[in-house]
Amino acid sequence: MRIADIRSVIDAAAWRIRDLQGHTREEFVAVNVPHVLGEHIANLRALDIPVRFGSEHEQRQYQIGACERQIDRWRGMQGINNKPFEHEPSATTVYIVPAFSDQAGQCRIVARKGCWPDARDSYRESPGAWVEIGLMDSSGHLRCLTAPTKVFNELRTSEPLAAGNVFQFQP
Fold this sequence. Notes:
Layout: H1 3-21, H2 25-30, H3 33-46, H4 54-77, E1 92-96, E2 106-113, H5 119-125, E3 131-137, E4 142-145, H6 149-157, E5 166-169
Antiparallel strand pairs: 1-2, 1-5, 2-3, 3-4
């Protein structure tokens, strides 16, 4: 196998992951992520990379890990009934998740029922407990948001937003 073929397999996995990162929560959950990324993982593991191509070995391992993280994220979202703004009068925390890379040009906006003063650590420990409610573009403006009007207005007046911002909403 030529090095160009090896790189195209690695790049195909990377592009598929980037594509999934641009999905809304509903779109992401609707995709059979284990099947889609499982094929990429199998292709990556099947690569016979000559020893002299050390960076390709590292890239392959990185992409396998990235695929597995996306599969874990998808599994965490399956069956979750954690709609942060529905029916219950409780506090809600909104967190703008820092992007994994600047390739996508956007950050996810997530929410979770309850008051989470350290949203970053809570999100890192259990990302599946947070529900994606929107996206912020690289210039700090809302691209889309599925939330009540008061949340939309608060985020809109706080523009430009920044990754890592945390908003608390009381009923």
